[in-house]
Amino acid sequence: MEAYVLTVGVEEEYFLVHPETRAVEPAGPRVLARAAADLGDAVSGEFTEYQIEVKTAPCVTSTEVHRELTRLRAAVARAAAAEGLRVCPSGTPVLGGADPVVVGDHPRYQTSVDLFRSMMDDYAINALHVHVHLPDRELAALVGNHLRPWLPLLVEMSANSPFHGGRDSGYASWRSVIRVRFPCLGPPPYVDSFADYERTARAMATAGAMPFGELPFWDVRPHPTLPTLEVRCMDVPADAADSAALAAIVRALVVTAAARVRAGDPGPRAGGELLRSTYWYATRDGWPGLGTDAVTGDVLPAPERGRRLLAHVGPALDAHGDRQVVADFLGRLERHGSGAHRQRAAAGRPGGLAAVVDDLVGAAPEDGR
């Protein structure tokens, strides 16, 4: 177990929506200009102009993560309101966004469009990214091996994108479905070393399956420029408290895995085909559906796998004071389901999908409450 506390940082992405139509609006540059006056480089644009992204500083406690996300959400909500818009934390656009997206002004984004063409037409998706401080890249690459089997459960716990462009997809995380159709997204490969990781990324870029060999987009990666291991598989949650709990889970998984790597365990060699199949199943049914247990391979309901996760990372949660935060989050999932359940419940109210957007907008109030 780590002898010191590992800091954790979080990125969240949100849609900008019109308060009357509730459809996404390509107003990212305008809202970003307002928000940056308050938040500086803690806010940025994203792949489409429908989106805006916030980034916490490195945090020590889950309480600090929650407080930072609440502050950042409130600041971008105020900036959006000044432009006559609202902020919506959903993995996919509930309304609008069905036509080819308005791509942000960045050469990297255009490179992806040139490579993947019409596959990018609906690529308007919002994620929760969690960074755990882990500057040793060799260690980080092997920790990724240990994290691979847990990624489908993280998808299930965070699923918050059942609707896309005005229709029910039938999936809990349609954002994840959009992502796993790309050859360079989804679970990372099993690697023997960081050099092996780099070779695989360069080979995929040479084969035309990845835009940049030096910037892989796998769901676990040693970050190309930051001293962190980044986990990227999760939908942005409706509530900041859930994001903070998921960040605690990711940190605990990293700490647990790092101890095993240092003890000589390079990680379970889960086959890529089976892992992608498990991923797909997780995107469809989400919580509380069936899935493969990351340790035993047993097919079990998500709540049981959640309890096994708690046991697996318990010492790491205790070391960082996070056990109760995660236990409370799992309790919320068991009582109410994931964000996908929340969205579908809201869709049954008067107003239909407009009520879904209103409920999500209410999760990012301007006053930060």
TrEMBL record:
Report any Pfam family annotated for this entry.
Answer: GCS2
Q: Which organism is it from?
A: Streptomyces buecherae
- The entry's keywords: ATP-binding, Ligase, Nucleotide-binding
Q: Which family does it belong to?
A: Belongs to the glutamate--cysteine ligase type 2 family. YbdK subfamily.
What is the protein name for this chain?
Putative glutamate--cysteine ligase 2
Functional description taken from the UniProt entry: ATP-dependent carboxylate-amine ligase which exhibits weak glutamate--cysteine ligase activity.
Catalysed reaction(s) here are: L-cysteine + L-glutamate + ATP = gamma-L-glutamyl-L-cysteine + ADP + phosphate + H(+)
The Gene Ontology biological process terms listed for this entry are: modified amino acid biosynthetic process
Q: What is its EC number?
A: 6.3.2.2
InterPro entries, sorted: GCL_type2/YbdK_subfam, GCS2, Gln_synth/guanido_kin_cat_dom, YbdK
Q: Name one GO molecular function term.
A: glutamate-cysteine ligase activity
Superkingdom to which the source organism belongs: Bacteria
